[in-house]
Structure formats: C-alpha cells, structure tokens
Amino acid sequence: MRVLVVGSGGREHALVWAIAGSPLCTALYCAPGNPGIDADAECVPIAATDLVGVLDFCRREKIDFVVVGPEAPLVAGLVDRLEEAGIAAFGPSAAAAQLEGSKGFTKDLCAKYGIPTAAYRRFDEPRAAKDYVRKQGAPIVVKADGLAAGKGVTVAMTLAEAEAAIDDALLDHRFGAAGAEVVIEEFLAGEEASFFALTDGKTALPLASAQDHKRVGDGDVGPNTGGMGAYSPAPCVTPAIEAQVMAQIIRPTLAAMAKEGRPYKGVLYAGLMLTREGPKLIEYNVRFGDPECQVLMPRLKSDLLPALLASRDGVLDDFDLRWHDDATLCVVMAAKGYPDNPSRGSEIKGLDRAAASDPSVKIFHAGTKRQDGKLLADGGRVLDIVGMGATLAEARERAYAVAARIDWPEGFFRHDIGWRALKR
Predict the structure, then answer these.
(1) Among residues of the chain, what percentage have pLDDT more than 70?
(2) N or C: which end of the chain has fewer CB within 10 A?
(3) Is there a single domain that holds both residue 196 and residue 314?
(4) Last residue of a domain, one of 265, 283, 318
(5) Are the C-beta atoms of 168 and 179 separated by less than 8 Å?
(6) Do residue 258 and residue 311 come from a single domain?
(7) Is residue 344 part of a domain?
(8) What pLDDT is stored for residue 9 in this prediction?
(9) Nearest to residue 191, comparing CAs of 207, 217, 213?
(10) What is the CATH classification number for the domain harbouring 74?
(11) Which residue in 255, 233, 227 sits closest to 327, CA to CA?
(12) 166-213, pLDDT tens digit by residue?
C-alpha cells in the first residue's frame, strides 16, 4: 500500500514510525512532516490544513490510504473530501469530528443521551457568563467552545481567574472564532486519565491506557498545555474501570452519534476524570492524543496499519490488538516561553548522540526544522523523549537520562512525569 500520514508533530512522527514497520506499506509519505519523520517517510511540503493540496497529491501519487493525524483537517472535512474522491482515509467525517470541534455540541450530546459528564452551561455573552460563575462559585472550569490547540481551557481556582478566562475568550477574542462561545463546567475532583478506543462506527476496541500531564510546571502548576509528558499503562485505569468506561461512555456515544446521523469512525479519545461517583467525560478528542500516541505506539505489538484499515472498512468486530507488557514514559521538551510565547529558532545539539546512547529510548520530533544544516526549535513542544522499560520507574529513568544528554539550553521539561503512578 502507498500510505500518506497528514501532520507534522510528535503524534505524526510516532504514527509514521509505527506504520513504517508494516509489511503492507510499500511507500510512505508525510505532509508536511518534520526533520525526524524524514528518516521513515518522504516528507512533502503540503500543510495539513491544505485540503486541496493533500487531495491533489493523493491523486498524483496514487495514494491508497491516508491517515489524518491532527484535529483541524478532520474538523474541516479532509476525510470527507478524500472518500468522495475514492481515496480511503482513517478518521471521522466533519460531522462526527464535531465531538472535538465544539465542546458545546459534545456536552449537549451527553445531556441528551445520559453520558456521565460535568454539569455545564453555554454562553456567548460575558455578563451572563460571569453571573453564572458567581452563582456557582470556584473552583470552576471555563472552556473555549472550538479548537484552541489545547490552550482554551482554564481550571479556575478563584472567581477572578474564571472572569479573566471569560474576558480572554468573549471580550479579547484570544482564541478567535474558537472562543466566540464558552462552556462553563463544574469542577470535577479526582484523577485524570486518557482513554482511547478504535472504532468502525459500530464496534469499539479499547486501546492501552495512558495518563497525560497538562500543566506546564512540576507539581501540576501553571497554565494548561497540549501536554508535557505521558506514560502507559495508567494504573488508575483498572480492568473494572475500562469496562465501566466502555459501557457508560464510549459505546453510548457511538450509539448516540449513529442515531444523530453522524456515525463515528476512527480513534475516539476520551479525557476522563475518575471521580468518587465513577468515570466522567471531561472532553472528547477525535484523534490520537499528543503526547499519548508517543507512549502507545512503542507498546503496540500488532501491526498498526491493518487496525486502521479495519476501522475505516467497518470490520473491527473480529479484530484484536496485542500490547507489550513493558511500560513507556514520554518527557516533552518545550521551548522556553511555552505555552504562551515560545521562543523559536534556537539550535538543538547532540540529538543523534543522545538517541544512540540508549536503544530503549526513542526520540520523536514535535516542533523542529532544519536550516543551513542545523536542527532548530520551531514550535512550543519541540521533542518527545520516550523511554521503555520493564517497569515505569525504569522507563522514566531511561527517558530522563537521554533528555539530559541533549544540548539545548533554550529548552525545558518537567522533572516529575509519572509521579502519580510511581506514588502508588
């Protein structure tokens, strides 16, 4: 098969790396890719959101199968365009991708079909939103309704923080059209977990569990980010919890989407809060998580490509996936100033030497570029250092040892990834 992966981040690097190992794959491309991806695939300079450009490339290169990594082209309808042109694609339609494209849509769906989630209200006018916040009290959560690259969520511990978040979205238009409406939710106490299921619209196949670290600083302080690290498996997601999530959240959502005329195919990523009352949905993403994908792919024993094809073709009912028992842990190296104003253009040295120092560690590129023979930082989250080990402690030790060998003074990372699991 001739395969195209769409995207340029660490998630796409992990997907390319996994697909490159498939005997079914005879040619592999990535649009636009990055300097790490070009070791496993031919990178083509087409933006992930350039739907016409992607379609033209697929026709020209006779691509058999497209795997769409990021949420923006999914919400914009890239899968619809490809399928209409007779090109098989992995991922949800634009109608189904509203599960991530609009938090309000998802909350309304949960309310209509009895899917457990936080109590909420939707607002497009700041005064009414602030009145509601004052009535409810803090802590409380304020979310931009649309796509905001993981930065549109404020867990406000005070009323002042909540009101500032409302102003950011509705008055200052910090998130553009994505913040034209806000969803205000009750604060859920508990432990967060990332839950993934591969689905063909009818059958859902749970994947290995993972846990992300959203806050920028050690000890879970500072603003939310796209994710500063992750590990798999997540001990908090026991077999009993997995069964509960599938029965009360994932399967009811798929049934609801089918009933609404929006059948969902692809990977469904449920951000969960494990509360005293049981698992509750925080939000849905309509693609593999980032950096969770980077800890899932090295643990996957099975060939990824047939699994993605089975999801697209509607034949997951007799499919199975096998996983390595080893644990994986990812440390995200970010540019100073992230998430608000990351610096770009600083040189990263010693990467090849660091990568060669331990074969059980994989470095995925998330935001890099090559210029004049140098590797430069070109994003907020720049590198993903993934260690594998018989235990989570071993995986963590390996990942941090390699991270310490990378010569990049302008970068930083959290030093406590995996602390919840290790504390257990």
Answers:
(1) 100
(2) C
(3) yes
(4) 318
(5) yes
(6) yes
(7) yes
(8) 97
(9) 213
(10) 3.40.50.20
(11) 233
(12) 999 999 999 999 999 999 999 999 998 999 999 999 999 999 999 999
262 occurs within a structural domain: yes
Residues 239-267 have a mean pLDDT of 97
Domain end (from 281, 299, 318): 318
Note whether 7 and 26 are same-domain residues.
yes
- 296 with 399, same domain: the answer is no
- Cβ-based neighbours of 97, under 8 Å, separated by 6 or more: 71, 74, 75, 91, 286
- Domain range enclosing 9: 2-91
Same domain, 171 and 202: no
Whether 59 has a pLDDT exceeding 80, the answer reads yes
Are 69 and 148 within one domain?
Answer: no
Q: Same domain for 412 and 338? A: yes
d(CA 245, CA 268): 12
Q: Are residues 201 and 309 in the same domain?
A: yes
pTM to 2 decimal places: 0.94
Which pLDDT belongs to residue 134? 96
The answer to whether residue 353 is domain-embedded is yes
As for how many domains the chain has, the answer is 4
Residue 32 lies in a domain: yes
